[in-house]
Design goal:
This protein is mainly α and 149 residues long. Helices cover 83% and strands 0% of the residues. The chain contains 3 helices and no strands. α1 runs antiparallel to α2 and α2 packs antiparallel against α3. The chain is elongated. The termini are far apart. The mean pLDDT is 84.
């Protein structure tokens, strides 16, 4: 009787282990497929952001009106704000492109290499700058509303 219980327990353990292995293999395959799709999407967004940055420099976008309290100081020099915003957007775009390369590298070699540090630095610096610019932007937009009333 003990032999039958042991045999049944072993066969049950084998079936459970086989099911776990199948689930793990399926999840690995589907996550690899999802990573590949996300890589294409994030890489495409990175290219788009770099193109927006180039257009910002070429056409002098992002210029502020003279009525804004901080940015208005540079209203006579539209390239100053165009350059700042374009560089900020380009840094985020380069981070997205580096992320796409990073995911492909991790998938192929299993290690991030220098691409992990590059992606982290690009997104960390641009995130901090966007945070500071966002805080300043609230102030300048309120000032713009008050100055034009």
């Amino acid at each position: 009787m003990a032999f039958l219980r042991c045999a049944r327990w072993r066969s049950l353990r084998f079936v459970q282990a086989t099911r776990r292995a199948r689930r793990k293999a399926l999840s690995r395959t589907s996550s690899a497929r999802a990573r590949r799709q996300i890589t294409v999407f994030v890489g495409g967004l990175g290219l788009s952001l770099v193109a927006i940055a180039v257009a910002g420099i070429k056409y002098q976008l992002f210029a502020a009106p003279a009525e804004e309290p901080i940015s208005g100081e540079f209203a006579n020099h539209p390239m100053v704000e165009a350059t700042f915003m374009s560089l900020l957007i380009a840094i985020v775009g380069l981070g997205a492109l580096a992320f796409a390369v990073l995911v492909n590298r991790v998938r192929s070699t299993g290690t991030p290499g220098a691409w992990g540090r590059v992606t982290g630095w690009l997104w960390g610096v641009s995130g901090a700058l966007f945070l500071l610019f966002g805080a300043m932007n609230f102030f300048t937009h309120i000032g713009l509303i008050v100055n034009t009333m």
